UniProtKB/TrEMBL annotation:
The keyword Amino-acid biosynthesis does not apply. It comes from Candidimonas humi. This is Sigma-70 family RNA polymerase sigma factor. It comes from the Bacteria. Residues 109-161 form the RNA polymerase sigma factor 70 region 4 type domain.
């Protein structure tokens, strides 16, 4: 049984570190509203996933959770901006409805989350292949790896896509 005396309650953690965390997020994001949202989301994650007695360094723990949320926040913003940029150059007749836009953005976020679950090298190989259209030898040269490593990375990425589509989906 973990030593609960050494682990702060969620309430204590919140009151002791919420202001600090929100300030840290505000400096990182440059926006008080997003910082407040992500600070709350951080504590929601603490409530959902915290094992009793597991928090020895509260600020490091909160920073780790919040940093993951910041990465997701920036990824989502980048996806939204890329989508808006794409829409800006479309003829008005082919611009999707608000509902279609929301569905497309949701799908893009799911794809980004799937890719975030891959190791960096596997994700890079997958994106160079699928987005940039590079061949395996071109990817190998660009990343300084062998074609065999590229093939294994693509196999892993495709397996992750298959799993997300047919097993988890």
């Amino acid at each position: 049984m973990p030593d609960q005396a050494s682990s702060p309650s969620v309430e204590t953690l919140y009151y002791s570190h919420h202001g600090w965390l929100q300030g840290w997020l505000r400096r990182k994001l440059g926006n008080a509203f997003d910082a407040a949202d992500l600070a709350q989301d951080t504590f929601v994650r603490v409530l959902r996933g915290r094992e009793q007695g597991a928090i020895r360094e509260p600020r490091a723990y909160l920073t780790t959770i919040a940093n993951g949320l910041v990465v997701s926040h920036w990824r989502r913003k980048a996806l939204e901006q890329a989508w808006l940029d794409t829409l800006a150059v479309q003829a008005e007749a082919v611009v999707p409805s608000l509902e279609q836009r929301a569905l497309i953005l949701e799908t893009l976020e799911e794809i980004a989350a799937l890719l975030d679950g891959l190791p960096t090298r596997v994700r890079e190989v997958f994106l160079f292949s699928q987005i940039d259209g590079l061949t395996y030898p071109e990817i190998a040269v660009r990343l300084g790896i062998t074609v065999n490593v590229v093939q294994k990375a693509m196999t892993r990425a495709m397996a992750q896509c298959y799993k997300a589509l047919y097993i988890n989906g």
